[in-house]
Amino acid sequence: MDDGDARYRPETGCAARADLRHDSLTATAPPAQRWLLIESHTAWPRQALTALERTLADAVARLCREVGIRPVLVRRYGRVDRTRGRRWGLVDCRPGREEVRWGPLPTDEHLLDVLAGKVAGTVSTEPVYLVCTHGRHDACCAVRGRPVAAALAAAYPERTWECSHIGGDRFAANVVVLPHGLFYGHVPPSRAVELASQYDKGLVVPDLLRGSGAFTPPVQAAQHFAREAGHSPTVDNLLPQSVEQLPNHHYRILLKTTDPATPPNATPSGSITVEVSAHLDTIDARLTCAGTSPAQIRRFELHTLTTA
Predict the structure, then answer these.
(1) Which secondary-structure segment (H or E) carries 151?
(2) Which CDD domains does this UniProt record tie to the protein (predicted)?
(3) Which H/E stretch holds residue 253?
């Protein structure tokens, strides 16, 4: 097991400390509109892509940056069967383009053809559940992530993958639901299957939702406040129509609502205008187990929310 620092104790790790501080999950999903999933049968180093040969790792990282793809290593929960062939996955999370494609990965070099669009892969209608268990990056991810991966794998073995670092170690256990790019944080094993079953119904689970990586943090914040006001938690509701950056880190976001009205005074199909502001708070804490203190965290504040 990749436990990271040998002195690590779960009760004093970054995720436990974040729990005690009641750090907000709202609008903390990192940008990730497209993903490259690389099945790996070897141990994961702290920097995941360095599991590839150095020149190849640099090329894959460069190509991913150029086309806006987030690469992660993935593996099945439990003992790895190294005799089984590996796979790659390409996931598009952009609204209206949501798609998962899989293909065989005979060699690591094959990734260059995948990124160049030379191999199409096969479209899958099955969602993908990524659970960060990258202990060499942060011990909290392994300690908290693996029980969640076990719970999901028991119910959905073909959909569930452990994955390398995805951001937000202090929110472990972290789960990403693809292809909609839904980031969930502080997921307990007892609620892991709930995320999947609700997704099958086309719904998000708001109290564990960090946001969708398909959208910028101000949009994630606007969607959160709209759901908090009673608007429907359906996955495809509250899509951004426009984002206007105002002075002093304020943002005005126009969201489209298409679901049956939840608030009594809302229209079944219309728009919601949300104005939020972003603030950086300095805290005397480490945001990762290997981090330093003090640190800064971003917080969003709601100013106005109006429904047309």
Answers:
(1) helix 139-155
(2) TRX_Fd_Sucrase (cd03062)
(3) strand 250-257
